TrEMBL record:
<dbReference type="InterPro" id="IPR001128">
    <property type="entry name" value="Cyt_P450"/>
</dbReference>
<keyword id="KW-0479">Metal-binding</keyword>
<keyword id="KW-0349">Heme</keyword>
<dbReference type="GO" id="GO:0005506">
    <property type="term" value="F:iron ion binding"/>
</dbReference>
<keyword id="KW-0560">Oxidoreductase</keyword>
<dbReference type="GO" id="GO:0020037">
    <property type="term" value="F:heme binding"/>
</dbReference>
<dbReference type="Pfam" id="PF00067">
    <property type="entry name" value="p450"/>
</dbReference>
<dbReference type="GO" id="GO:0016705">
    <property type="term" value="F:oxidoreductase activity, acting on paired donors, with incorporation or reduction of molecular oxygen"/>
</dbReference>
<protein>
    <submittedName>
        <fullName>Cytochrome P450 4V2</fullName>
    </submittedName>
</protein>
<keyword id="KW-0256">Endoplasmic reticulum</keyword>
<feature type="binding site" description="axial binding residue">
    <location>
        <position position="368"/>
    </location>
    <ligand>
        <name>heme</name>
    </ligand>
</feature>
<dbReference type="InterPro" id="IPR050196">
    <property type="entry name" value="Cytochrome_P450_Monoox"/>
</dbReference>
<dbReference type="InterPro" id="IPR036396">
    <property type="entry name" value="Cyt_P450_sf"/>
</dbReference>
<keyword id="KW-0408">Iron</keyword>
<comment type="similarity">
    <text>Belongs to the cytochrome P450 family.</text>
</comment>
<keyword id="KW-0503">Monooxygenase</keyword>
<keyword id="KW-0472">Membrane</keyword>
């Protein structure tokens, strides 16, 4: 890996160039497996035929007709967060990222496993969640120290041993869940009617029992991949959205007005599919936040044969890295790029913009499989909170910089002040 050529691209033409390269740029760099060791050969890190098979297998779980059945569940998790935030309304400030992390964890666990983890209702962080956070923190530090890149070195130092310990914890819990699901399947406890809501794990188990080359370890790897990647990115995105809304009260006021127009004074009414379509300005706010703070700050591709990208000759085996947070600041595409301006994403302002100039969920065949679920979750959670509360951010943007690791999180915890909007608390 140390001898591999690496090309960094910041041009907004890059995603379109990668698209035009077709199958030459589908594979992830081998470094993904090294630094994202927790995922094994799951969908995020696999390549070639294995990736195509896994993607085809899991795609049906993310169709809109499947996702819409989770709208009631998303509402329930959002309401739990509303109640949890009541305890914060008399405090000088709240570090909201942990609360949003627990909410996103509850959401993704129900979607992936059909299990109610109730992380929001506990004062103790779930062991699974704590372990994955430590794995990614230590793995991120490893990427910045080239001497720790070789596995035989990393696995012998203190941080490497801690990573291995946490990986064992996560895999043990995932294995227990998979084996319990298999037991239910064999004993006839899992019976589904046509069109009934099912978890991703249900579908993975069925595939495992029907296909010889998809073993129990494969199920475990996919389970971990979807829980971790589906939780971390969405919670980070919501954290940044609340931060930006708290910095710009005029924009927050517009969102409040839109929500009041849709829901009136009924702050307890669950959001519906129609409501999601009506929250046009809130969606613009979320998209603009994702432009400035895309959850994945970069994505890489390993070139399978000689090609040309952005007029640069790229040899076979080289790695191309797209810096998403830089692409989204191209002045030719987004004038005054540092300005927080949700109007950029109004339909009339997006007509002539290439869909490959804005890629918070990556682009092409290897785009984020869960992006629709993530957007639904963000809209429902953010709208539910804003129907009940006003948000004020206490740290200016120049003092709160993003930490560019595997997921863009703030370099220091975000502090916001939460106050009730109305006496009619949910």
């Amino acid at each position: 890996m140390l001898n591999t050529q690496c090309f960094r691209f910041e041009s907004s033409k890059l995603p379109e160039n990668l698209k035009n390269c077709g199958n030459k740029t589908i594979d992830r760099p081998l470094s993904y497996k090294k630094f994202l060791i927790l995922f094994g050969t799951g969908l995020l890190t696999s390549n070639g035929t294995l990736w195509k098979t896994r993607r085809k297998m899991t795609n049906p779980c993310f169709r809109y007709d499947i996702l819409k059945d989770y709208v009631p569940s998303l509402n329930e998790h959002a309401q739990v967060l509303v109640k949890r935030l009541r305890e914060e309304t008399d405090k000088d400030f709240t570090r909201i990222s942990r609360l949003l992390s627990h909410c996103a964890f509850d959401v993704i666990c129900e979607f992936v496993m059909g299990v109610h983890m109730r992380a929001q209702e506990s004062s103790i962080e779930p062991e699974f969640l704590y372990a994955t956070k430590r794995i990614f923190l230590l793995s991120s530090r490893r990427t910045s120290n080239v001497f720790l890149w070789p596995d035989f070195v990393f696995n012998r130092v203190k941080s490497g041993k801690e990573v291995q310990k946490h990986i064992a914890t996560v895999k043990a819990q995932a294995r227990s869940l998979v084996q319990e699901e298999k037991r239910k399947y064999f004993e006839g406890e899992l019976k589904f009617k046509e069109g009934e809501k099912r978890s991703l794990l249900n579908m993975l188990i069925e595939h495992h029992l029907q296909v010889k080359d998809f073993g129990e370890e494969d199920v475990i790897e996919e389970l971990i991949t979807f829980i971790v990647s589906g939780h971390d990115t969405t919670s980070a995105a919501m954290t940044w959205t609340f931060y930006m809304l708290g910095l710009y009260p005029d924009i927050q006021k517009k969102v409040h007005e839109e929500l009041d127009w849709i829901f009136g004074e009924d702050i307890k009414r669950p959001a519906t599919e129609d409501d999601l379509r009506d929250m046009k300005y809130l969606e613009c706010v979320i998209k603009e936040t994702l432009r400035l703070y895309p959850p994945g700050p970069f994505f890489g591709r390993q070139i399978s044969e000689d090609t040309t990208i952005c007029d640069t000759k790229i040899p076979k085996g080289a790695i191309c890295v797209a810096l998403t947070h830089v692409l989204h600041r191209d002045e030719d595409v987004f004038p005054n790029p540092e300005k927080f301006n949700p109007d950029r994403f109004l339909p009339e302002n997006s007509l002539n913009r290439s869909p490959y100039a804005y890629i918070p969920f990556s682009a092409g065949p290897r785009n984020c499989i869960g992006q629709k679920l993530s957007m639904m979750e963000q809209i429902i959670v953010v709208s539910t909170i804003l129907r009940n509360y006003t948000i004020e951010s206490l740290d200016e943007r120049d003092r709160l910089l993003p930490a560019l690791t595997f997921v863009i999180n703030p370099s220091t915890p975000i502090r916001i002040r939460i106050r009730p909007r109305s006496s009619k608390m949910a």
